[in-house]
Amino acid sequence: MMTIRIWDLPTRLFHAAFALSVTGAILSAKLGDTWMDWHVRLGITAFALVLFRILWGLAGPRYVRFSQFVKSPAATWKYFKAQASQPYKSAGHNPLGAWSVVAMLLIIGFQATTGLFANDEILTQGPLAQFVSEAGSSLMTGLHQWNATWVYVIIGLHLLAVLVYTFKGQQLVLPMINGDVPATRLAPQTQSARDDLVVRLGALVLAVALAILAWWLIQLANNAGSTF
Ligand code: HEM
Ligand code: HEM
Known about the structure:
Helices cover 66% and strands 3% of the residues. It has helices spanning 9-31, 36-59, 66-69, 73-82, 95-116, 134-167, 173-178, 197-224, and strands at 3-5, 180-182. Strands 1-2 form a two-stranded antiparallel sheet. One protoporphyrin IX containing FE binds at residues 11, 14-15, 18-19, 22-23, 53, 64, 93, 97, 101, 104, 155, 158, 162, 172-173, 176.
């Protein structure tokens, strides 16, 4: 069967790492106590992954670029009305899915950013909390707690959407794992995404730079202990 590469390897690895680190950050926060060390590590990893995806959305291959998949509200509405009658044949995120990608990056990005300044008034604080006032850190902690609900909502909607498409017979999960979509499910002459060594090395350089940033933030958090 002819297939077309849609999701490049870096994007697929990003997705797996993002799902694992966000899930881990939620679980460790719920377990609390000494698990908060893991919350800081996994939360900072999720923060670095959001930065990766934003930069990858500007410089990465065709179907992961924001300019390729973010459509106007009018076009999104048109898609929403039409999708019941005709299957979507354009490659990459559909217009509705595209907005959920943006929402996930914004909501989870906000969660991770406020976390950097948060503190639990016991042992744990974000690496940047020491640079703001106590009131500032409390404000960020409040926002971090408030936004957690939206993190659950957006992840719930994401999983629900994936489930609904799967039941409707549109396989989305496999392509997010192996990168490929059968050509019969796409419009004729659909172009494949670049996923060669140059693309992968570019992503690796970006990932290493962001891993250094994450490592530095984790050290900063460890050394800060709790100053509140
Ligand atoms: C905490 C958990 C998860 C988070 C935060 C998350 C986040 C995301 C993000 C940000 C994207 C956009 C990918 C990109 O363009 O870079 C995406 C796409 C996708 N995710 Fe997840 N994901 C999670 C869990 C899962 C799980 C468990 C599955 C499968 C069972 C899944 C299936 C998919 C699929 C199929 C797509 C592609 C949708 C499309 O074709 O437009 N995700 N996810
Ligand atoms: C995507 C990433 C993150 C998620 C999903 C997340 C989620 C959560 C959740 C659900 C809570 C518990 C809120 C409650 O039930 O009261 C929490 C608390 C906390 N998080 Fe995060 N977090 C993330 C990133 C971070 C980061 C990067 C840091 C700091 C490095 C951080 C530091 C904290 C602290 C200090 C608390 C305790 C605040 C309190 O006392 O309620 N978080 N986080």
